Amino acid sequence: MPTPAPDSRRLAPGRADSHSPLAWPLRALRPLLHRALLRGLRAPRLAHDPPIAQLAQLAQGTRHALRLETLRLRGARGQTLAAWLLTQDLRGPAHASATSATSATREPSAQPLPAVLAMHGWGANASTLWPAVDPLLAAGFAVMLVDASCHGESGDEDFTSLPRFAEDIATALEALCAHPAVDRDRIALLGHSVGAGAALLHAARSTENPAAGPCPVRAVVSLSAFAHPAEMMQRWMAEHRIPRRVLGNAILGHVQQVIGERFERIAPVNTIAALACPVLLVHGRHDTTVPMADALRLRDAQPRAELLVVDADHDLRAALAPQGARIVAFLQRALG
């Protein structure tokens, strides 16, 4: 039986504190609250260690003949997004660099490749997903890695959010779909944590309005996804000992106003229910950041979803390589 989602009436912007004796003081303090939240919720910027190019060279030195294209994309809000496209090079070992969204001079493979667009989680970067990349490349997939805004080598903004992660996915997907080496009808999304929530959100929007996206999403691999952003915020406030009755509901409402979305509309437990494509949920049984109960709720919300439980915590990097064959098999079935 799915665990009920939080009561949306308690999460509506402006409603939680409207009848409280603290309502007027909280409104007066809203600018201060806004600045404090931007500072407190800002994602740390993690450097690539090692860089993507070095990871590609190491893989090429083992069993892959790889082609790497380094891309700089213009995001939906005018920011720069760093991205990398990796494909097997059938002509032999090579290393290429491109500065535009696509490389018009690139000779396409004999047959366009199925592709996976991978989005990291909060405070991480594209290189943290490399353990998932290696088995995909070995199986003949093209892989695009992206640094979300405010992360890695991408441009900075006042803030980022799950909806903005989804916008960054849409920008990268447009470049991926236009690439001559890629089969635009066989594309999947893979994301970790907030990146997984963003992948589910983009896929749900594409399902609701197929004409809105650059190409269809045929499958989603969700790593360590949470069920509801309000619950993540509540856990964050509990860790920082923020009193819910005094400030908690005001913070929940203010965050929704800032990101421009109701939590209910972007909650993975709701977006996954709207999907028509296959979904693989991968979750660590020792995850203390996002409890296993969230993965079970996501599976219950989408009966066609598959759940793969691995011996790991929230950071699945050590568990991804041993499970590479399972993820590859799922994508091969989904993409054909």
Automatic annotation (TrEMBL):
This is Dipeptidyl aminopeptidase/acylaminoacyl peptidase. InterPro entries: AB_hydrolase_fold, FrsA_esterase, Hydrolase_4. It comes from the Bacteria. It comes from Quisquiliibacterium transsilvanicum. SUPFAM superfamilies: alpha/beta-Hydrolases. Residues 112-238 form the Serine aminopeptidase S33 domain. Residues 1-20 are annotated as: Disordered. Keywords: Aminopeptidase, Hydrolase, Protease. GO terms for molecular function: aminopeptidase activity; carboxylic ester hydrolase activity. Gene3D superfamilies: alpha/beta hydrolase.
